[in-house]
Design goal:
The protein is 55% helix and 20% strand. The relative contact order is 0.10. With 172 residues, the protein is of the alpha+beta class. It contains four helices and five strands, in the order H-H-E-E-E-E-E-H-H. The longest helix is centred in the first third of the chain and has 42 residues. The chain is elongated.
Length: 172
C-alpha cells in the first residue's frame, strides 16, 4: 500500500503542476488580450476624453453645434481646466467633442488649451471668430453693426458674472 500512495501523490503533483502551468499561460494570454484591448480603446475611443472629464463647462459659454452625420453630432465648447499639464494650469479648454446622436455620449474629443492670461492668443481667436461673423453677415445680407452692439452690451452686462465664474472654477 505504501507503494501505491507515492504514485498517487506523484500523479496528483504532476497533474497539479500541469494545471498550474495552464492557468499561468491562460492568465498571461488574458493579460495580453486586455492590454491590446486597452490600447485599442485608448486609441480609438478616449482621445481627449480624459481632459474633457477633468474640465468644467463654463455657463456663460454655450456649446456650438456643428454639422453632424446621421449617427453623430459635433459640439464646440469652452471649458475651464485646472489640471496641471506641461507645467501650466488654469487654462481655457476649447474642445470639439464627437457625440452619439441619440445618447449624447461623448465618443471622441480634441482640445486646445489656452491660458486664461494669454491675452495675445485670445485676442487673435476673438478676431478670427468676429471675422467669421462678419463674413457670414455679409454673405447673408445682414448688417453686422447691430449684432456687434448686442454682443458688446451682453458682455458688458454679464462681465462681472463671467469673471466670478472663472475665479471660482480656476485656482489662482
Amino acid at each position: 500500500m505504501s507503494n501505491f500512495k507515492p504514485s498517487t501523490e506523484e500523479t496528483f503533483l504532476k497533474k497539479f503542476e500541469k494545471l498550474s502551468l495552464k492557468i499561468e499561460q491562460l492568465t498571461d494570454e488574458i493579460s495580453k488580450m486586455k492590454t491590446t484591448l486597452d490600447k485599442n480603446y485608448k486609441v480609438n475611443r478616449t482621445f481627449g476624453l480624459k481632459t474633457v472629464r477633468n474640465s468644467q463647462p463654463l455657463e456663460f459659454a454655450r456649446d456650438v453645434m456643428g454639422i453632424g452625420s446621421p449617427t453623430k453630432r459635433y459640439l464646440l465648447s469652452l471649458r475651464a481646466i485646472t489640471e496641471e499639464w506641461k507645467g501650466r494650469k488654469n487654462d481655457i479648454l476649447i474642445t470639439i467633442r464627437q457625440q452619439e446622436k441619440e445618447t449624447h455620449m461623448d465618443l471622441k474629443a480634441l482640445g486646445i488649451r489656452i491660458p486664461v492670461s494669454d491675452i495675445k492668443n485670445i485676442r487673435v481667436l476673438a478676431k478670427q471668430i468676429l471675422s467669421l461673423l462678419y463674413i457670414s453677415c455679409e454673405l447673408s445680407g445682414i448688417a453686422i453693426n447691430e449684432i456687434l452692439r448686442e454682443l458688446i452690451t451682453e458682455i458688458n452686462n454679464e462681465g462681472q458674472k463671467m469673471v466670478q465664474e472663472i475665479k471660482q472654477k480656476l485656482i489662482f
